[in-house]
Amino acid sequence: MRRAFRIFRAGCTVHFCARADPSRRLKAYRRGHRGEWLAAAALMLKGYRIVARRYRTKLGEIDLIARRGVLVLIVEVKARRTLLEAIDAVGHGAQRRIEGAADLWLAKQPDYARLSLRFDMVAVLPMRWPVHVENAFYGRT
């Protein structure tokens, strides 16, 4: 794996910092955008309206927020080779961050607070239509 090295000066000390290859980071960023676009398209075809994309808070980021009727979806999008890899990629820590971000979003959206909330996942797999996993995890009760 190729790594780029940068030198930072802090006072008199020189620090070496290994960072990921910028071209790989750009590819991952583009793959994430493409995956979120495909996930949003799949949800819209199922009748959901996309309320927000890449909603950032101090606690974390929500990839997609969608609504259909009285149901609000907090959606995590994962682009992986297999469905199992995508499901495993949403670990306990990521779930807690998504829940915290959802709490902050709901606090700013009083009209949505009375609606039902569900945490879903959309797995974007190679050469396949995105797979929508309902109730991928449960929020705090």
pLDDT average, as an integer? Answer: 86
- Radius of gyration, CA atoms, in whole angstroms: 18 Å
Spatial strand sequence of the major β-sheet: 3-4-5-6-7
Q: What low-confidence regions span 5 or more consecutive residues with pLDDT below 50?
A: 1-16
Which sheet architecture does the biggest sheet show? 5 strands, mixed
**How big a fraction of the residues is strand?**
35-45%
Structure classification = alpha+beta
Q: Rough shape?
A: globular
**Strand-and-helix sequence, N→C?**
EEHEEEHHEE
Through-space gap between termini: 43 Å
User: What's the number of helices?
Assistant: 3
**Assembly category:** single chain
Number of strands: 7
Percentage of helical residues?
25-40%
Describe this structure in words.
- Belongs to the UPF0102 family.
- One of its GO terms (molecular function) is nucleic acid binding.
- This is UPF0102 protein ICI42_09405.
- InterPro entries: Restrct_endonuc-II-like, tRNA_endonuc-like_dom_sf, UPF0102_YraN-like.
- Residues 1-16 have low confidence and may be disordered.
- The chain has helices at residues 22-45, 83-88, 92-108, and strands at residues 3-10, 13-20, 49-56, 61-68, 71-79, 116-124, 131-137.
- The longest helix has 24 residues, at 22-45.
- The strands form 2 sheets. The protein has a 5-stranded mixed beta sheet with strand order 3-4-5-6-7, with helices on both faces. The chain has a two-stranded antiparallel sheet with strand order 1-2.
- By secondary structure, it is of the alpha+beta class.
- It is 33% helix and 40% strand.
- Strand 1 and strand 2 (13-20) form a beta hairpin.
- It contains 3 helices and 7 strands, in the order ββαβββααββ.
- It is globular and about 45 Å long.
